[in-house]
């Protein structure tokens, strides 16, 4: 069975009563309960906020959501973030979640290519869009845009920039050794 638009919640048996009361599509997998999202998204979000599981795994949670729905999803994630909680999101829609992440894990064929905090990524890498051709020559990775290039540069000046997850993903797949070298030199 393919798991799409489902939330996987690690939850105690005592809490299953509440899930069943909401008439959600439940599937038990060991200690995990898979909750169908398709028709019950709002009820699931309410249950998660009230029950606040310690670990929440989400597979492509923004697929099929319109713009207001994606905004609500980001608010939901931000409201559930705390030191005692872990939210794992598997998605190809990185622009839907890039502002609420504190850690990035990039995998390819079961290989971990990058496993770093967003703050560590931004300490090491500078993300910028520029039409400066000389700057593009010094980039670790570049993708052409209408205005010039999206660039990833070494952050030698320790400047602040917003992480561009799509660019980082493409750079990590294109040059995994170079990206790994930047992060594993300190370890």
Features:
single chain, 187 residues, alpha+beta, five-stranded mixed β-sheet, three-stranded antiparallel β-sheet, 7 helices, 10 strands, globular, disordered N terminus
What does this entry look like structurally?
- The strands form three sheets. This protein has a five-stranded mixed sheet, with helices on one face.
- The N terminus is likely disordered.
- Helix 6 crosses helix 7.
- The protein is built from seven helices and ten strands.
- It is globular.
- It is an alpha+beta fold.
Rg from C-alpha positions?
19 Å
The main sheet orders its strands as 2-3-1-4-5
Number of helical stretches of at least 4 residues: 7
For the terminal residues, how far apart are their CA atoms? Answer: 40 Å
SSE order, one letter for each helix or strand: EHEEHEHEEEHEHEEHH
Beta strands, count: 10
Poorly predicted tracts of residues: 1-24
Kindly report the average pLDDT value: 76
Report strand %.
25-35%
Per the principal axes of the C-alpha atoms, what is the gross shape? globular
Helix content bin: 25-40%
User: What oligomeric state do these chains adopt?
Assistant: single chain
């Amino acid at each position: 069975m393919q798991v799409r638009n489902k939330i996987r919640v690690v939850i105690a048996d005592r809490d299953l009563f509440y899930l069943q009361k909401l008439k959600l599509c439940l599937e038990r997998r060991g200690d995990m309960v898979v909750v169908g999202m398709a028709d019950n998204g709002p009820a699931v979000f309410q249950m998660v906020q009230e029950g606040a599981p310690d670990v929440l795994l989400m597979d492509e949670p923004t697929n099929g959501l319109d713009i207001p729905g994606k905004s609500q999803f980001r608010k939901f994630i931000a409201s559930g973030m705390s030191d005692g909680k872990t939210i794992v999101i598997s998605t190809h829609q990185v622009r839907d979640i890039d502002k609420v992440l504190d850690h990035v894990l990039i995998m390819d064929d079961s290989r971990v290519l990058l496993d770093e905090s967003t703050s560590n990524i931004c300490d090491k890498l500078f993300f910028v869009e520029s039409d400066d051709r000389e700057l593009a020559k010094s980039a670790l990775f570049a993708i052409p845009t209408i205005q010039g290039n999206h660039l990833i540069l070494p952050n030698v000046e320790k400047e602040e920039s917003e992480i561009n997850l799509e660019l980082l993903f493409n750079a990590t797949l294109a040059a995994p050794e170079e990206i790994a070298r930047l992060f594993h030199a300190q370890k």
